[in-house]
Amino acid sequence: MADTSLENEVKNEEPVASGTEPTTPSDAEGPEPPSTSGRADAEPKKKKPTVVLIVGMAGTGKTTLLQRLNSHLHTVGKPPYVVNLDPAVTHVPYGPNIDIRDTVDYKNVMKQYGLGPNGGILTSCNLFATRFDQVIELCESKTDLDYILVDTAGQIEIFTWSASGAIITEAFASSFPTVVVYIVDTPRCTSPQTFMSNMLQAVSILYKTKLPLILAFNKVDVAKHDFAIEWMEDFEKFQEAIDSDSSYAASLSRSLCMVLDEFYRKLQSVGVSAYTGEGMPEFFEAVAGGAREYDSTYKVELERRKANRAAEEEKRKKAMMDKLKNDVKNSGEREVPLRKGVPDDFEDQFVEEPDSDDDDGYESG
Ligand SMILES: Nc1nc2c(ncn2[C@@H]2O[C@H](COP(=O)(O)OP(=O)(O)OP(=O)(O)O)[C@@H](O)[C@H]2O)c(=O)[nH]1
């Protein structure tokens, strides 16, 4: 059996990188507002870190970018909590605090269940998801944390379209402000059709998770992402780029670019380089924007669902009681008034009237 007990939590002790300290959006936002409870001894409300879920197609640079984000956050004095959810990764260049590989050995899982590599990764993620309540507890026990960075499996569909991916995403999103970052390999995206495939993948993730989504165009040290921004802002420019292609796929992409106009408006996009560190302040600005969007959308819906559940529970209890009362009535029995063991006036019989000159109300001796 795969050992799914969650015991290994490591301290993410990346050395602080040298260099100038860039400001982050949370710095710009200023200090936390003072407590409004009015009680001097009231416990300050615990700050909730933002979960940054990194997803993207194989080889887009998820792991390298996470390493860069980790190093940047150490530099600005906000060391994050890091979770690796890729069971098949051979080398993790950052020190994850929680690593799926400490809990499940994906090669053993493959052998044990007679699976291929993808089946092994999927089953490992499923086994790990059964322990995810403990991961959330660990994350919640951390104080003074601004970010939880989460790296996911190389095969994007294993995370975004599996039961375990949904469980893990929802577990994070019901406990913390959560933002999905979809990594795009910019140099591989300069062809309009590859760009469109990426956008379709991203749109499906946005509508499945219902969480704020940031498009991070990685590897801008090799190719700038200006062309992508232009295509997203002006669908005619995209159509011009694909004009010379008369294939069926190109004509599909032409039609889709108009439909996706609405989707693009819901997104924030940033250009980053995991190699050079370009775009880090903009990336965290987008994350802060995503966290605000989470508060005004996902969280509101979450609270509405909780309130609905409470109202439904009340309704269920009332229906049960009504049914019971009805049964009592139908069987000819009468409802009985509640009687206490001791009558209300029982004590009063033994209370003496205080003496008129004994004004403290106590008897002496
Ligand atoms: N030039 C350049 N190369 C990068 C950048 N980020 C990542 N790479 C390279 O892209 C390749 C893939 O990077 P990874 O970080 O392993 O990508 P990944 O998405 O985690 O890969 P899987 O988990 O296997 O899907 C590696 O060769 C990296 O060195 C970048 O910003 N610029």
Give an account of the 3D structure:
Belongs to the GPN-loop GTPase family. Binds to RNA polymerase II. InterPro entries: AAA+_ATPase, Gpn, Gpn1/Npa3/XAB1, P-loop_NTPase. Small GTPase required for proper nuclear import of RNA polymerase II (RNAPII). May act at an RNAP assembly step prior to nuclear import. This is GPN-loop GTPase. By secondary structure, the protein is an alpha/beta fold. The protein has a single domain (46-308), classed as P-loop containing nucleotide triphosphate hydrolases (Rossmann fold), CATH 3.40.50. It has 15 helices and seven strands. It has helices at residues 25-28, 62-75, 100-103, 106-113, 117-129, 132-141, 156-160, 163-175, 192-209, 226-233, 235-242, 248-259, 261-265, 280-296, 298-330; strands at residues 50-56, 81-84, 98-99, 147-151, 178-185, 213-218, 268-271. Strands 3-2-4-1-5-6-7 form a seven-stranded parallel sheet, sandwiched between helices. The N and C termini lie far apart (76 Å). Residues 15-40 and 361-365 have low confidence and may be disordered. Guanosine-5'-triphosphate binds at residues 56, 58-65, 86, 154, 218-219, 221-222, 273-275.
Layout of helices and strands:
Layout: H1 25-28, E1 50-56, H2 62-75, E2 81-84, E3 98-99, H3 100-103, H4 106-113, H5 117-129, H6 132-141, E4 147-151, H7 156-160, H8 163-175, E5 178-185, H9 192-209, E6 213-218, H10 226-233, H11 235-242, H12 248-259, H13 261-265, E7 268-271, H14 280-296, H15 298-330
Parallel strand pairs: 1-4, 1-5, 2-3, 2-4, 5-6, 6-7
Helix pairs in contact: 4-5, 5-8, 6-8, 10-11, 11-12
The chain binds guanosine-5'-triphosphate.
Guanosine-5'-triphosphate binds next to helix 2.
